[in-house]
């Protein structure tokens, strides 16, 4: 009977992987629309709000128009600690060290791990916090306003904090009662928050389309930009009809925890109010999606997936930057087909070999990891060794051919590979889940415990549940034995 249970678990896992792979194959590539790179912005709720701040600050040269933050907090608020995330950054149980976070921002900008902070001065910020939000307290949003004062002119910031809304995205015609905090975390408060955000970021807009939308919703292949790392195989994009021929604006919309497509269907994508404004104002909307493998379907704003989660090199961050780059590109200008036979081999703890079949007429190739180009010069052959990778980590690569004019052709399908642990056996630690979190090998969230790095569930967070964790790389632990 036990063996049968294991077999069923294996079959279920295999089936889930097959469904995800099929979804990515069935979805279309994210289109290159030649959108205006000077008109890019981002907004998000809760975990999406924290991620929106991260993107706005780290990629300030990309998100030039600014950010709309609903129930978020200061940049790098958690400082890599889930205890900080669930404490000071949500309940404000202890004070948030805003001045320290400002200093960190300036230091990282000076080192080049994030864009220069001078870019932020020309952007706009819209902040929203409901008076009935007991999940992310208004004091946290107050600190976010204080944080932004170091970088964004006061005249460019709006802070609405006088509406009795719970922890939710607010609309004027859809969702639950205004003061509630419950799935799908969309509340009807008689206030058009999406419209307020977009109007502040872009200036006066044409009236919204309250009728049938003229554009198209498309499920796109998100795994072209990122695989694993808590990201779903597919995301969604709304393209107004005019944007198929005209150069349009781009707005990235980030859902909160327990709000991805698997959790709430298309409610966040279609019912939060963004699309009807986008339709009449030439705004392309990108809706990236987490997977249910992500902790509570949240975006990574405290380090559950990667230690560099708030920097430009963070996997989720780099993937969304690459999505914007794709939409603002013109498609490359070459008719060369996509390389085939892309695969990975020769894994080490810090490198991977990517190989592919040659394309007739190609003079070179570009290699992309998670949507970001990794080769400094065109690759002459049909393989490339990507270095500087993290141990025991899964990555995704795509390849495109270059013609004699160095114009890029179609992008290949993605190939994934996992780096090795960097050791022969690893080190094992057997302790209570409480002890693991105190030692920095795991983190607790909503009463459950997860291994750092792998994010594997360890059960309840207490002194009674004992788990063996195997360290397979720096800051990377898996449930198992040596």
TrEMBL record:
Q: Which GO terms describe its molecular function?
A: hydrolase activity
Q: What is the lineage of its organism?
A: Bacteria, Pseudomonadati, Pseudomonadota, Betaproteobacteria, Burkholderiales
Keyword check for Signal: yes
Listed under GO cellular component are: extracellular region
Domain of life the protein comes from: Bacteria
Q: Check the UniProt entry and state the signal peptide residues, or none.
A: 1-26
Under PANTHER family, the record lists: POLYHYDROXYBUTYRATE DEPOLYMERASE, TOL-PAL SYSTEM PROTEIN TOLB
> What is the official name of this protein in its record?
Fibronectin
Which SMART domains does this chain map to?
FN3
Organism, as annotated? Variovorax paradoxus
Q: Name one Pfam family in it.
A: Esterase_PHB
Which keywords has UniProt assigned to this entry?
A: Hydrolase, Signal
Query: Has keyword rRNA-binding?
Result: no
Can you give the residue ranges of the Fibronectin type-III domain? Answer: 338-422
């Amino acid at each position: 009977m036990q063996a049968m249970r294991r077999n069923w678990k294996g079959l279920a896992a295999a089936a889930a992987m097959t469904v995800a792979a099929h979804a990515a194959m069935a979805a279309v590539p994210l289109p290159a629309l030649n959108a205006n790179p000077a008109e890019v912005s981002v907004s998000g709720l809760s975990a999406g709000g924290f991620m929106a701040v991260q993107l706005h600050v780290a990629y300030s040269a990309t998100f030039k128009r600014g950010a709309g933050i609903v129930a978020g907090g200061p940049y790098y608020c958690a400082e890599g600690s889930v205890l900080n995330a669930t404490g000071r950054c949500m309940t404000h149980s202890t004070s948030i060290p805003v001045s320290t976070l400002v200093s960190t921002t300036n230091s990282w900008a000076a080192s080049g791990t994030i864009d220069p902070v001078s870019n932020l001065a020309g952007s706009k910020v819209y902040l929203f916090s409901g008076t009935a939000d007991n999940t992310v307290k208004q004091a946290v949003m107050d600190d976010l306003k204080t944080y932004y004062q170091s970088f964004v002119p006061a005249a460019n910031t709006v802070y609405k904090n006088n509406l009795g809304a719970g922890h939710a995205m607010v609309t004027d015609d859809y969702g639950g009662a205004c003061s509630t905090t419950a799935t799908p975390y969309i509340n009807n408060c008689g206030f058009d928050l999406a419209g307020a955000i977009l109007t502040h970021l872009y200036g006066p807009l044409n009236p919204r389309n309250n009728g049938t939308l003229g554009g198209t919703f498309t499920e796109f292949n998100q795994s072209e930009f990122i695989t694993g790392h808590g990201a779903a195989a597919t995301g969604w994009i709304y393209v107004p009809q005019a944007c198929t021929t005209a150069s349009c604006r781009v707005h990235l919309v980030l859902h909160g925890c327990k709000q991805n497509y698997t959790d709430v269907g298309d409610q966040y994508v279609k019912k939060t109010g963004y699309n009807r404004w986008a339709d009449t104002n030439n705004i392309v909307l990108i809706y990236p999606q987490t997977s249910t493998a992500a902790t509570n379907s949240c975006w990574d704003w405290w380090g559950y997936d990667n230690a560099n989660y708030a920097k430009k090199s963070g996997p989720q961050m780099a993937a969304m930057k690459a999505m914007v780059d794709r939409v603002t590109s013109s498609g490359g200008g070459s008719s060369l087909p996509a390389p085939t036979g892309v695969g990975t081999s020769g894994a080490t703890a810090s490198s991977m070999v990517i190989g592919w079949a040659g394309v007739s007429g190609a003079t070179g190739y570009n290699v992309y990891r998670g949507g970001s180009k990794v080769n400094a010069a065109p690759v002459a052959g049909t393989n490339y060794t990507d270095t500087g990778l993290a141990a025991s980590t899964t990555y995704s690569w795509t390849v495109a051919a270059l013609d004699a004019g160095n114009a890029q052709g179609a992008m290949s399908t993605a190939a994934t590979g996992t780096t090795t642990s960097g050791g022969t056996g690893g080190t094992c630690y057997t302790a209570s889940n409480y002890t693991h979190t105190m030692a920095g090998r795991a983190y607790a969230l909503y009463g459950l415990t997860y291994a750092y790095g792998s994010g594997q569930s360890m059960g309840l967070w207490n002194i009674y549940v004992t788990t063996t964790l195997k360290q397979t790389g720096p800051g990377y632990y898996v449930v198992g034995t040596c």
